[in-house]
Amino acid sequence: MGCYDCCMRCLGGVPYCSLVATLLCFSGIALFCGCGHQALTETERLIETYFARNLQDYITLAYIIQYFQYVIYGLASFFFLYCIVLLAEGFYTTSAAKQTFGEFRSTMCGRCLSSSFIVVTYVLAVLWLLVFAFSALPVYFFYNMDATCHTIDVLTETPASINQLCVDARQYGLLPWNAVPGKACGITLSTVCKTREYRMTYDLYIAAFAGAGITLLALVHCCLHLAVNQVYQRKLRHRAKEDRRGYDLYGRLQRDRGGTLCSPYPANTSDMSSQSL
User: Fold this and answer.
1) pLDDT tens sequence across 88-110
2) 109-166, pLDDT tens digit by residue?
């Protein structure tokens, strides 16, 4: 076997669909966890600087942010292992790899593992859909804040109306209702929107939201690929069973005919003409 044939055989055994899903999952989780962790840190800094003066007003929010950061650590570790298992499952169930190492054969244990992996991936996709929806909430908050700041910049010639434009962190549940000041209005809000911390936090939340969407796409892609592969293997097993049944019937007919099974029709047309004469 030449080098080219060997390379083609190795490339033919690569599960490209599982590889794409694994890369999407890796990139999405890295984007979500990395940007989400830093965005939470910057959010705590913004709330502490511009929306709350007393430590007791945002201490609960600080604990919640710390809790979510620990959850992000766990998600990163779990999905790192999950992506490795996803790629290994793809190599196991790839048709080309089975052609390389033997016929299309699968054990009952392998089929159970594949089915279990499909169920786990489906459950993860449903749960991650909730995470994807939850990650849109801070993007919505900062979008409203950015829109209010844009309105303030437009209405700079009327200071009286500017002071009535506010963003209240207490309305979004970030601070308790007795927090002081709990909101930013007018020129103060416009100053907050022009800070580097605000722009960076807004961009980080958008990136985390995009990472959650990429991860959801990877999970759905993986679930569909595994399901299609399972159906394909079932068809192969059914076809092999039908072929085996045909071979058994052929062998039974051979035994009934004394070991040979000949066609009742002549081999060629000359034989037919000789028989008619």
Assistant:
1) 777 766 654 455 444 445 555 55
2) 556 777 777 888 889 999 999 999 999 999 999 999 999 888 888 876 666 677 788 8
As given in the structure block, the two tokens for residue 69 are 């950061």
Q: Which two tokens stand for residue 189?
A: 């809000």
Q: How many CA atoms lie within 13 A of 72 on its CB side?
A: 24
Closest by Cα among 169, 163, 168, 167 to 187: 163
pTM equals 0.76
Furthest CA-CA distance within the chain: 119
DSSP state of 32: H
Q: How far apart are CA 208 and CA 74, in angstroms?
A: 16
Residue 7, Ramachandran bin (φ over 0: left; ψ between -120 and 50: alpha; else beta): alpha
What H or E segment, with its residue span, contains residue 255? helix 196-256
